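Notebook p. 47: complex prediction with zinc ion.
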Amino acid sequence: MPRLFVVILAGLLLGTSMTYAGVTPAERLSESIQFRTVSYQDRSHIDLNEFERFHTFLRAAYPKVFAQLEVEVINNYSLLIRWPGKDGELAPILFTAHMDVVPIESGTEGDWEFPPFDGVVANGRIYGRGSLDNKQGVLSLLEAAESLLAEDFSPSRQLVFAFGHDEEISGKQGARKIADRMREQGLHFAWMVDEGGMLVSDNPMVPDQQLAIINVAEKGYLTLTLVATGEGGHSSMPPRVSTIGRLSAALERIENNPFPTRLVVPVKVMLESMAPHLEQPERLILGNLWLTERLVTNRLSQDPLMNSFVRTTTALTMFNAGLKENVVPQRAEAKVNFRLLPGDTPEMVVNYISDVVNDPEIEISYDEWDYVPGLSDHEGTGYAVIAGAVSAVYPEALVVPSLMFATTDTRHYMELTDNQYRFQGMIIETSQAKSIHGTNEYIGVKSYEDSIEIARQMMKLGSR
Ligand SMILES: [Zn+2]
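Predicted complex, structure tokens below:
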């Protein structure tokens, strides 16, 4: 029977409204992009029907997953899927991804080579919003599970899949609710893997081979609010020191006193792993960090990207004061955003900044952290499974642990496992990175197929 006919027949038997799910993985990813599951900061703009239609498509596209595994819809639009293991004593593992995508920035629609929600397959690529972030993540996991079910694979330990629907706007309605449900179910995972790391084909640090980056930690996020209050009044009789002047001076001190540099474990291991692939003298320098750490951190801190790897960064982001040109304001307010290295805490930042500011007339406040980013074991089982899955598909690849600057849904699952890894097996060129949340997002068809195979390998190796 022709495959297309089988698909249509299956759709009829399921009683769905004839959702045509493509017959190849690339066609299915293409179709998934056509559902505009867009998250907007203002939730009233979100078209929730698109999420419902997307669910219907998933059910038609992955019939075995939805028939044979335990599927729960959480908070109407998120999905929790459990694949029970043969041995109930073994701790389960968790695979996560998100179904929502970011909007197209208005005015940039015309810059796309193909319309962002058409899912065009051309030039050996699948184009569209979500092709990398993160429909690829959701569908590659489902493709892997569906094909393993077709092979009658049955995992030793439980495999759990969690697909949130609002990662791009905090994950509070999606991943957080899924995590609440997991707590009710008493789930505690051996390890989890979320989006956030990938393979890069042309990293300049390792030009001779692919680099697989498994993020084992993320930077913390903290914003301090600084407020100067004081005498205001008419600008014809100004105070000697205005609130604006006082606060500006404090901010200048903050900017001139960055946090000290240091090498945290994943960054250290990453640099050491790269060393053998570099020319001299870099090979010698990075290969002997016990001796050269100061030299290396100093040099890295000169580059804005590398600087973020070696210190808690400081960014002055907002300054508000004054309403009228001839009135000295009684209040000036600024916000400073910090990205913390693993191990640094909000208290440490506040103490450090209070010392630097050293002005009792300036009040410093911040919002409590709702989670503390963990530092996962780069020598643990989960890491070894992911690295093994990469090697099965890309035997030449150099696999390194690293540190991620962005935040994902991972934060909602922190309490449910000690080991959070961030990796999905797609391979991109460095130039593609800016298309994530930007223009002309695409994934190579081969890259996508390989990511499915890596997901299959993770499930097979991990479930043992
Ligand atoms: Zn994402």
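Notes: Residues 157 and 285 are 43 Å apart (CA to CA). Residues 445-462 form the longest helix (18 residues).
Next step: compare against the earlier run before touching the bench.
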